[in-house]
Write a structure and sequence with these properties.
The complex is a heterodimer of chains A (337) and B (320). By secondary structure, chain A is an alpha/beta fold. Chain A contains 11 helices and 16 strands. In chain A, α3 packs parallel to α5. The chains are: A alpha/beta (337), B mainly alpha (320).
Amino acid sequence: MGHQWGQRSIWAQSAGQRLLLQVKIRTETPIVMFVAEIRNLTVRYGQFVALSEFSVSIPEGCVGLLGPNGAGKTTLIKTLLGFVDPSGGGGTVLGREVGRHDLQIRQAVGYMPEQDCHIPGLTAVQYVAYAGELGGLPPNQALRRAHEVIEYCGLGEARYRTVETYSTGMKQRIKLAQALVHGPQLLLLDEPTNGLDPMGREEMLALIRSISHEKGVNVLVSSHLLPDIERTCDDVIVLMGGKLIKQGKIADMKRVEGHPMDVELRLPNEQFVAEAEQLGLTLDFAELLVYRFQGTGTIGATSALLFEAARRSGAQIRRLNLAIRSLEEAFLEAVDV
Amino acid sequence: MSEPIVDLSYRGYGGPHLAEKRRWLVIAKMSWRIAFNKKAFWVFSGIAGWYYLVMIAFLYVLEQVGIAQKAPGLSERLFGRLTWCDQFLTGFNYSQLIWLVLGLMVGAGAIANDNGTNALLVYLSKPCRKIDYLFGKWMGVFVPLLVGMGVSNVFFYLYGVLNFREYGFLTQDPWLGPRLLLMLVGAAIFQTSLIIGVSSLFNKGRMAGAAFSAAFFLMTFFSLLMFVAWGVSQGGRRGKPNLELGSMAEKLYYWSIDGLQIGWAKVVLRTDGSAPFGADRDMPQIHAPPAMMVIVPMIVLSILGVGLAWSRIRAVEVVK
């Protein structure tokens, strides 16, 4: 990959004045705004269209690829890796053209497949070190990093056992370790919690969150399990039938239209509702001690009105927050079910 | 306060990378390591040289007889009966079965086991091309096969150079060394390409091995039948030779895996062979085939084997 020129804005101080300068900088690696950008991608398996005119920009950070089985999630990942030849369109991964710079893409990307995969006959540490060498690491570095990554993935002394003897949870971890060993900038995880028991699932999700939020690796998590995406990701891309349904920050997707507020009282209080309505607020719904009110003003104004209603009715507020919905509700709305 | 010995937490890698062109070598080295670490591999490599060991013992006895008789020129007469390249041809011929075992040991699971464990997803998701994988696997089988067969041949060749120079070991055929190398390399290329092709068709090494063995033995049985037919065609001491049957059996004898390899060895060593241990120089032998009769099928079958493997190598998941 050659040098590239990019543009940056910097502030400079001159004769007591601050000036905004546009400067050209030379970078060793391409400037990446998005980890991947897909344009009008169409992938066919014979007559079956797995992805149709699919366009998306995958931002940096931890991004969830959400969709039911057969939505095209795995096909998208395989296309990014160059395993599948698209019948139309294309895209870039970390600034490299898909189909033209597949080797450079795979150098910068780690892939954890959905199914079991390992090199037969090797111990875990041999396997991960071998994966590191395949990823371009010199043998001594590959072995050192294999030990580090296996330790990080929580396999400890099991590293000296052959992978064939591993439980499902351990196999998932070793798959993650082989994807990480060569130090990728982007990690593609395909159904990482597949076949795991609840505790194993929790540990795997914590590991993914640690990789993306503490170690600075961009992660694309493909899953049909909404709670997994909700637990690990900041952004989500929703696919269905090979088409992009919705994309955005999870926090934004969970936000309810307008800015309704949820208020939880210590004890039931009917007068509180009456006072709030008298102050111009609309009750959306009430469930046990939780009431959702919609106001016409700002969030601050609605909050002030709720406090006023509580004061007038003598109600004691336990919790007050901007109303949100679950990702499941957002997903169902997105796929129009 | 003590410093940590090593930071065991994950971190990115900013160090040097190996050239992309060397990925095949990484794969081949791993295959070599696995093959050469198997004790059975070295046991069978040793067994492959059984004819040479018996020959060495036989030559030793002849030498001792010559010394004991105190007859001048006896050793020259005894050793002068030997055609050295024929001994290598016989050794090669007799070790075909062992070579099959070595081939199965290092090659049957080469791609089949990877198919069964979805290992291709690991290989091909790294900066490693399909050609790197196939060439790496091919070299991973070829080199151990060559070593497995070469050990006994090199041993016997060096034994001959050191002990029988004065009896014409080097002068009988000055190009014997390079010819032996060519014989072994050619046969190893052929067998490697075939076994890699068969291996790519299966998801388990054992199944690939069973299929390859079945094909090998069926064809060897055919060659054996042709050998018997050829023997019958010679008519014995009193009978009349059947030239037509003999000619046909001679050609068909080479229509098998080991037949082609033996034919190749005869072509390269430029000999029809002779009775084992130099026993009877006049004993009739199946003639060496025309060079093209073995070279063309070997090349075609090798290309088919490698082509088959090439078409089967894909980053697809096997769902169990």
